[in-house]
Amino acid sequence: MNRIEFIRNEEKKYHDYCYENYKLFEEGSWLYKPVKTVMDLLPLFGDKENMNVLDLGSGVGRNSIPIAEAIKGRNGKVVCVDLLDSALNKLKEYIKKYKVEEVIRLEKADIGNFGIKQNKYDLIIAVSTLEHVKSEAVFDEVIQRMAKGTKNNGINCLIVNSEVEEINLETNEKLHALMELNLSTEIMLNKLCSLYSGWEVLMTIVNPLEYEITRSDQPILLKTNAITYVVRKNIG
User: Fold this and answer.
1) Using CA atoms, how far apart are residues 199 and 193, in angstroms rounded to an integer?
2) What is each CA distance from 77 to 55, 104, 115, 153, in whole angstroms?
3) Cα-Cα-Cα-Cα dihedral of 191, 45, 88, 22, to 10°?
4) Is the pTM here over 0.90, yes or no?
5) Of 221, 215, 59, the residue nearest 127 (C-alpha)
6) Per residue in 173-191, pLDDT tens?
């Protein structure tokens, strides 16, 4: 098992456990509520009809279900992309529960390989997912596909982790962070700025975070600089 396979196997265990043991929109985990930054973008589209949204790494619908509820009455559509069966199976249940079956379409895919139609989407979100692609080159390619797939005046909303550290809380040992792409905050910001050259930057925030997770029954402190980067396509 190579490094990427090992990391993805560990991440799968972690997410499978979360999706099975924590319910969407119930207190007790990060599934409790959607990301405020994402939801705050919806008013920028006003009462736009036929709005198309792409959620890369959607998980069980933490963001895509509230978006679907908001645009349901205006013939909006949300495409949810995820690789994990545990995420997509739970998402199917939540789609029925929240009555957004006609709004959300599921795609099982690695976001690193997912094809995005040009000028298709009004809003593309990628929350804590792009750092899980296989390499910097793949990261760049995904962003380029996102940019091409966005309509003029459309928005991309990214939340990307950088400078990730993992520390064993029982031994205080610093571990190798299980993150496929773990760039410095400065390099990541420069990369985003370059890839979105010519776009209007609506928001750039670097938020230092730390929280406890469990890996192999061990309590782990995960520390990260979470970058929120929101841009609008204003071409021509």
Assistant:
1) 9
2) 11, 6, 17, 18
3) 90
4) yes
5) 59
6) 998 888 899 999 999 999 9
